[in-house]
Amino acid sequence: MLVFDTAYTYKIMIERKVAVIVTGRDLGGYFDHIWTCHPVASLLEAEDSPERFGRPVVHELAPGHTVIEGRIGRYRWLAWCPPLNFLLAQIDLIDLLLRVVDEQKIRIVRAEDPHYNGILAWLVSRLRKLPLMIGVWGNPGAVRRVTGVPLTPRLFRRVRVEEIVERFVLRRADRVMAQNEDNRGFVVAAGVPHDRTTIFRIGNVLHESHFTAPTARGDGRMELAALGVADQDTILTISRLQELKLVHHVILAVKRLKDRGRRVTALFVGEGPFRAEMETLAASLGVSDQILFCGNREQPWLARVIPVVSAVVSPLTGRALGEAALGGAPVVAYDIDWHSELIETGETGELVPYLDHDAMADAIERLLNDPETARRMGCELRGRAMNMLDPAAADRAQIAAYQALLADSVE
């Protein structure tokens, strides 16, 4: 199978020990080989780095798993004309991928979004007459209603253009996978028949450390002590630092709690372009000393820390909410996307109205005021997550979907 995915570069997967995102796609050996393509991996390189230009790079991630990374420019000397340079680099990449498809006898093409990854996957699948599967791991419509801007502004300048491309790609997919019913609702609203959609739970792409019992993970309090926040009320948010992820709402909640005389330290794990704005916001609100940016962290580190923080706050998260739930952490989450499938107020956490950061602060305070109840809800949440995100069940469901897709293509 050939997969288009821009979530992580090869370097980041190695550094953060999240290669399971790729290796888990073989479904325990159902696929002999997975080829994962990040078409614009060098976008993360420094502006003056020669690594931004050149031919695609091939990495062997693990036995049976190969990563191909495209460049944002074919020639360094052509950097003065980015559009042409980018086009040449992508043509070079597509030529390589078509040769891989032919030589390796790839049977399925998959993309992890209906945007640029989806466009490339559709092109390759049509050129080689292969079944196409598109993933929708969120609800783009709900996010755009809040932000008013495209999810991929570098590619699409207007929301309307992004929506047209989404519908074009989704309606031409042989099957669309979504991680929950909310996301599937978005897909169906885009014009995809319900019988061409399927739910793909994410349990089989979570690091194994998150399935270990929280008490058997090692003492996360040592990690907090190393950060200088031992014996404090701490809340944790795991997310890319992007405005559309609403991570700044956690800072607003910290400010509200401070105004009530309740001091809490917020830890942010993740990186992103919105960090500078978050730092400015924290300074303007007078809570900089209560905000700690931890950067990207390895999965075992996260697995140790999640069970020992006072609460995890989830404004808008996917895989990170699953990790928090498996860690048995008390969780406060906005009522958006798939959050309500795991979080039930009073039972498995606190679900609060979307965008209401005052309600978020209220919920955090309730958990801090009643740690015994908070931990009970965390235990209930872990039980629900262990059932919903069971990796073996995810493998079986996905294999069935692939078998149906291949059977349809034969017919």
Task: Write a short abstract of this structure.
By secondary structure, the protein is α/β, with parallel strands linked by helices. The model has no long low-confidence stretch (mean pLDDT 93).
Topology:
Layout: E1 2-4, H1 10-16, H2 20-23, E2 34-38, E3 57-62, E4 65-69, H3 82-104, E5 109-111, H4 116-127, E6 132-136, H5 140-147, H6 159-172, E7 175-178, H7 181-189, E8 197-199, H8 221-226, E9 234-238, H9 248-259, E10 265-269, H10 275-285, E11 291-295, H11 299-305, E12 311-314, H12 319-326, E13 331-334, H13 339-342, E14 350-352, H14 357-369, H15 371-388, H16 391-410
Structural notes for this entry:
The chain is an alpha/beta fold. The protein folds into two domains: 2-206 and 390-410, Rossmann fold, CATH 3.40.50; 212-388, 3-Layer(aba) Sandwich (Rossmann fold), CATH 3.40.50. The protein has helices spanning 10-16, 20-23, 82-104, 116-127, 140-147, 159-172, 181-189, 221-226, 248-259, 275-285, 299-305, 319-326, 339-342, 357-369, 371-388, 391-410; strands at 2-4, 34-38, 57-62, 65-69, 109-111, 132-136, 175-178, 197-199, 234-238, 265-269, 291-295, 311-314, 331-334, 350-352. The strands form two sheets. Strands 3-4-2-1-5-6-7-8 form an eight-stranded mixed beta sheet, sandwiched between helices. A six-stranded parallel beta sheet has the order 11-10-9-12-13-14, with helices on both faces. α9 packs parallel to α10, α9 crosses α14 (357-369) and α12 crosses α15 (371-388). The mean pLDDT is 93.
